[in-house]
């Protein structure tokens, strides 16, 4: 079985002026707050929100979105992929995890990320410092999810005997996830017993990253099967196969132009700072899955089988009118998800 998720980027509205007009943004928020709970009856495994800042998305505090969706749903999993730890005090993150796990009735997924260089740069945070903060925050988070009273001595945080309440409802801890783009990061996650998610890369590179994860997980005695790894791709769905693929090509062009602002992207003639503090990634054509439902299902299943992923995270095209967003969301649920849940990996 391949478990289907939504990866919700929640971008700012595409219509001119809408993002900064409170009355129009209120309507935009309300539309999505009505959409997200429909993931449950449509058969989605859950929703992963994301954290972004400074105008690219309406999700600077994705935990608030989880708190809104939780009482409108009963079974779907809810999480963030991922919460950018270098921006937060880890002890506060642990407290919010405890609250959200109760508010969701034990349906919380805990995902973390180190951050995006071009966003961090706007607040004077270097990639090197962000990596250090992320690693130290992870150390605190892992300890505090197990023990209610924690002490820590490090470069960025120092405290003694902090009692962090409430304790998460799920025992021993809620599932932990981390976003990765390299074998090194995958191995680090495997040693923690965290699940991983990746995208962007061609499927051959994704497979290499997952193989590194599986190798390290088996070495230290942690789970290493399909349930531990997730593939994230951008999905364009339409009843008309040709129309979907044409729209996806435009989406790919736009995305590639925008993502080139990320200094980690590897491209011909471009030197990438691939140092111990950061990791380069490439963008394969298989990042973009497009077509009518049967084609999309076949493509997703083939990619998940090749890399051994037991989870698939779909990013739907948000550049189209909202009515088309809703149609794609429903088509994926009614026509693609049944095939994914019947597939073997």
Key features of this structure:
345 residues; alpha/beta; eight-stranded parallel β-barrel; two-stranded antiparallel sheet; 12 strands; 41% helix
Written overview of the protein:
With 345 residues, this protein is an alpha/beta fold. It is 41% helix and 17% strand. The chain is built from 10 helices and 12 strands. The chain has helices spanning 22-35, 62-69, 90-103, 117-120, 127-146, 183-192, 203-220, 241-259, 293-307, 322-342, and strands spanning 3-8, 46-49, 77-80, 83-84, 108-113, 149-153, 158-163, 176-179, 195-198, 229-237, 288-291, 311-316. The strands form 2 sheets. The protein has an 8-stranded parallel beta barrel with strand order 1-2-3-5-8-9-10-12, surrounded by 7 helices. Helix 6 links the parallel strand 8 (176-179) and strand 9 (195-198). Helix 6 (183-192) runs parallel beside helix 7. The protein is globular and about 60 Å long.
- What characteristic shape results from the CA principal axes? globular
Largest beta sheet: strand ordering: 1-2-3-5-8-9-10-12
Main pleated sheet: 8 strands, parallel, barrel
Share of residues in strands = 15-25%
Which secondary-structure class do the elements indicate?
Answer: alpha/beta
Instruction: Report helical residue fraction.
Output: 40-55%
The total of beta strands comes to 12
Look at the structure and give the mean pLDDT. Answer: 93
Rounded to an integer in angstroms, the radius of gyration calculated over CA atoms is: 19 Å
**Helix and strand sequence:** EHEHEEHEHHEEEHEHEHEHEH
Low-confidence stretches: 272-278
Count of separate DSSP helical elements? 10
> Span between N and C termini?
7 Å
């Amino acid at each position: 079985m391949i478990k289907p998720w939504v990866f919700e980027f929640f971008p700012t509205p595409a219509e001119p002026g809408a993002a900064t007009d409170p009355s129009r943004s209120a309507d935009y928020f309300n539309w999505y707050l009505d959409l997200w709970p429909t993931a449950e009856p449509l058969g989605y495994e859950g929703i992963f929100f994301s954290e972004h800042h400074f105008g690219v998305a309406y999700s600077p505090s994705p935990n608030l979105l989880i708190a809104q969706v939780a009482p409108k749903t009963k079974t779907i999993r809810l999480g963030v992929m991922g919460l950018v730890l270098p921006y937060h005090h880890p002890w506060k993150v642990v407290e919010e995890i405890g609250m959200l796990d109760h508010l969701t009735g034990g349906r919380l997924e805990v995902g973390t990320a180190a951050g995006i260089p071009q966003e961090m740069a706007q607040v004077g945070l270097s990639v090197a410092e962000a990596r250090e903060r992320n690693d130290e925050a992870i150390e605190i988070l892992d300890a505090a999810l197990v023990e209610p009273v924690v002490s820590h001595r490090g470069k960025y945080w120092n405290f003694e005997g902090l009692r962090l309440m409430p304790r998460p409802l799920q025992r021993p801890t809620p599932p932990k996830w981390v976003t990765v783009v390299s074998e090194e990061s995958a191995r680090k996650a495997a040693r923690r017993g965290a699940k991983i998610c990746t995208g962007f890369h061609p499927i051959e590179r994704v497979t290499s990253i997952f193989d590194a994860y599986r190798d390290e997980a088996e070495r230290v005695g942690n789970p290493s099967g399909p349930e531990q790894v997730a593939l994230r791709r951008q999905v364009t769905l339409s009843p008309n196969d040709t129309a979907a693929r044409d729209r996806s090509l435009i989406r790919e062009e736009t995305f590639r132009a925008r993502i080139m602002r990320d200094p980690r992207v590897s491209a011909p003639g471009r030197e990438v700072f691939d140092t111990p503090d950061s990791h380069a990634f490439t963008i394969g054509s298989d990042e973009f899955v497009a077509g009518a439902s049967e084609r999309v299902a076949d493509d997703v299943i083939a990619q998940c089988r090749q890399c051994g992923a037991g989870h698939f995270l779909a990013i739907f095209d948000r550049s189209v009118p909202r009515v088309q967003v809703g149609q794609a969301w429903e088509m994926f649920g009614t026509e693609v998800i049944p095939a994914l849940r019947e597939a073997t990996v």
